[in-house]
């Protein structure tokens, strides 16, 4: 059997895969099993944040492979503590819990928010507000946190204790909080990714932050997709005047290996005490060594270039033939075509460009260090396909 036949026979059918089998990659280039070359504008849904086979990441991971691959979290390891220090110093947060994915990081954030409130106010203040059209993961609890009805099917009963409010409607958020004194936290993505690439308005995000602070409602910021340089700042919330109480991040932090991290601020530090949470693989030395290499290379110069490349994408597609709308920030963009997006992705693959989708949009998450010539070529091909009659 070939790869496609093995997949059909042996793998659970939860993915609508495109008929392409990638076998290798380098930087922003992918190669399939027939030798065809593609420009990667999706980075494994924002994971290969500095491209494929990024040499400093390979060196860090390889060195750790030959040193210590895993020990229990009942012991200390240097890569884990060094990564936690780097994250706290770069964000101003106070401590970190490591896990293996964005969903796990969000589960930890939810647990931490509820424990903070229960410790301080008792068991009747545990509800968390999320935004309509949000996406926070695929576990039972993070599905419940996700503000999309399409995900609230098939897996009942979902975890209780979530309410939903429209993005960019501050009055609705405040009215909801006033009607529900049991609210303990609000959880938001700076840009709704899976929900269609919708950035939060500055007034809304900052207004939510101010109201939450005034009423001791924790502000939890989901940076699973927007974090680690994606928006032109190290974390998406840094584009706004807000101070989170809890941050979740994953995807690009690992550079290709699975990691999740939940960062706790001044209010919430130490809220998860001994025995209240844990993870066998969380903070694995190899993954943390790779993540440190990623963080070390997301500097101001790179972030400035992310902003410039984002400006190029925005200006290229705004008003272009076949394009209805453009939204995003940094190197996270949603391009809404006039035609059905499902018909466009195969055409782009045929022409050697890998993209993602989000609802009715093409979603772009290229490597932060994508060469300008690759970005320009991919954008040119996309514009040609979008303009076709």
TrEMBL record:
Instruction: Give the matching InterPro entries.
Output: AcOrn/SuccOrn_fam, Aminotrans_3, Aminotrans_3_PPA_site, Class-III_PLP-dep_AT, PyrdxlP-dep_Trfase, PyrdxlP-dep_Trfase_major, PyrdxlP-dep_Trfase_small
Please provide the Gene Ontology terms (biological process) for this protein.
L-arginine biosynthetic process
User: What SUPFAM superfamilies would the database entry show?
Assistant: PLP-dependent transferases
**Pfam assignment, any one:** Aminotran_3
Could you confirm whether the keyword Transmembrane appears in this record? no
By sequence similarity, the record places it as follows: Belongs to the class-III pyridoxal-phosphate-dependent aminotransferase family.
CDD domains to which the protein is assigned, alphabetical: OAT_like
List the protein's name. Aspartate aminotransferase family protein
Gene Ontology terms for molecular function: identical protein binding; pyridoxal phosphate binding; transaminase activity
| Keyword field | Amino-acid biosynthesis, Aminotransferase, Pyridoxal phosphate, Transferase
Keyword Ribonucleoprotein in the entry? The reply is no
| Cofactor requirement | pyridoxal 5'-phosphate
Functional pathway: Amino-acid biosynthesis
């Amino acid at each position: 059997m070939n790869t496609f036949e093995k997949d059909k026979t042996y793998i659970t059918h939860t993915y609508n895969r495109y008929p392409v089998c990638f076998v290798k990659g380098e930087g922003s280039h992918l190669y399939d099993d027939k030798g065809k070359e593609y420009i990667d504008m999706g980075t494994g849904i924002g994971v290969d944040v500095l491209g494929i086979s990024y040499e400093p990441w390979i060196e860090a991971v390889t060195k750790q492979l030959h040193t210590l691959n895993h020990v229990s979290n009942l012991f200390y390891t240097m890569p884990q503590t060094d990564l936690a220090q780097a994250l706290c110093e770069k964000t101003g947060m106070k401590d970190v819990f490591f896990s293996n994915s964005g969903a796990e990081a969000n589960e930890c954030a939810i647990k931490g928010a509820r424990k903070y409130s229960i410790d301080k106010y008792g068991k009747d203040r545990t509800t968390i507000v999320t935004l309509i059209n949000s996406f926070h993961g695929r576990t039972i609890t993070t599905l419940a946190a996700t503000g999309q009805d399409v995900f609230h099917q098939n897996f009942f009963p979902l975890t209780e204790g979530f309410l939903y409010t429209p993005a960019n409607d501050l009055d609705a958020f405040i009215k909801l909080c006033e009607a529900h004194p049991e609210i303990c936290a609000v959880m938001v993505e700076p840009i709704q990714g899976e929900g269609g690439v919708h950035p939060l308005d500055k007034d809304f995000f900052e207004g939510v932050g101010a109201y939450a602070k005034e009423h001791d409602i924790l502000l939890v910021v989901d940076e699973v997709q927007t974090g680690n340089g994606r928006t032109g700042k190290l974390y998406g919330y840094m584009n706004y005047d807000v101070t989170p109480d809890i941050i979740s991040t994953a995807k690009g932090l690992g550079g290709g290996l699975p990691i999740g991290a939940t960062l706790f601020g001044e209010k919430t530090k130490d809220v998860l005490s001994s025995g209240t949470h844990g993870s066998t693989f969380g903070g694995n030395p190899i993954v943390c060594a790779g993540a440190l290499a990623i963080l070390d290379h997301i500097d101001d110069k790179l972030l400035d270039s992310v902003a410039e490349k984002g400006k190029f994408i925005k200006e290229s597609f705004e008003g272009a033939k076949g394009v209805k709308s453009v939204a995003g920030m940094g190197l996270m963009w949603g391009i809404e075509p006039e035609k059905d997006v499902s018909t466009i992705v195969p055409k782009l693959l045929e022409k050697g460009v890998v993209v993602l989708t989000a609802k009715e949009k093409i979603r772009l998450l290229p490597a932060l260090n994508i060469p300008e010539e690759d970005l320009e070529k991919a954008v040119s091909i996309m514009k040609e396909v979008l303009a076709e009659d």
